[in-house]
Amino acid sequence: MLRVTKLTDYATVVLTVLAARPGAVLSAPELAERSGLEQPTVAKLLKPLAAAGLVQGFRGASGGYRLAKPADAITLIEVVEAMEGPLSMTECSAAAGHCGIEHICGVRSNWRRINDVVIEALRGVSLAQMLAPAPHPAAFAHTASVRT
After folding, report:
1. Distance CA 122, CA 46 (A)
2. Residues 17 and 36: beta-carbon distance below 8 Å
3. pTM listed for this prediction
4. Which of 55, 75, 136, 145 is most buried, by the most CB atoms less than 10 A from its CB?
5. How far is residue 14's CA from residue 127's CA, in Å, rounded to a whole number?
């Protein structure tokens, strides 16, 4: 099954808590409480998110974390890559030299194309959009019928 890790999912939850309070500095315990996650999990998430430049950390009595840039400037591909590294649907999707049969493989180029489509889809969704309620499923059905 193709899915993001639980930590990536949780990272999105923590980031939306911050996005809902632009400019606010929230401590790890506050983020844990508001997100419904355990404090050690939130602390574990904040390290790679800070390293990727998605959150800023502040020390001191009134320290905590806030988004490093506006929520509409943070895309889901940035979150995924901060938590999991470069997106790669298959071993050979990211770079050559990872597969023993790539010199005779007939599907590598198609997997790379699919990989690129997924990246673009994630790049097309911002953290700000994740705050909004999901569109009604009927909207997806209409979109799907238009594409076919």
Report:
1. 21
2. no
3. 0.83
4. 55
5. 11
DSSP for 21-54, written as a single string: STT--B-HHHHHHHHT--HHHHHHHHHHHHHTTS
* Run of H or E residues at 55: strand 55-58
What are the pLDDT digits (tens) for 57-85? 999 888 899 999 999 999 999 999 999 99
Contact 126, 73 (CB under 8 A): yes
CB 69 within 8 A of CB 63: no
> 128: burial class by Cβ within 10 Å (0-12, 13-18, 19+)?
middle
Helix (H, G, I), strand (E, B) or coil at 5: coil
User: What is the greatest pairwise CA distance in the chain?
Assistant: 60
Q: Which DSSP symbol is given to 141?
A: H
Q: What is the dihedral of CA 89, 92, 94, 97, to 10 degrees?
A: 160
Q: Which residue has the tokens 């997997």?
A: 111
Q: How far apart are the first and last CA of the chain?
A: 25
Q: Is the pLDDT of residue 142 over 70?
A: no
The two three-digit tokens of residue 136, written as one number: 């009604």
DSSP type of residue 75 = B
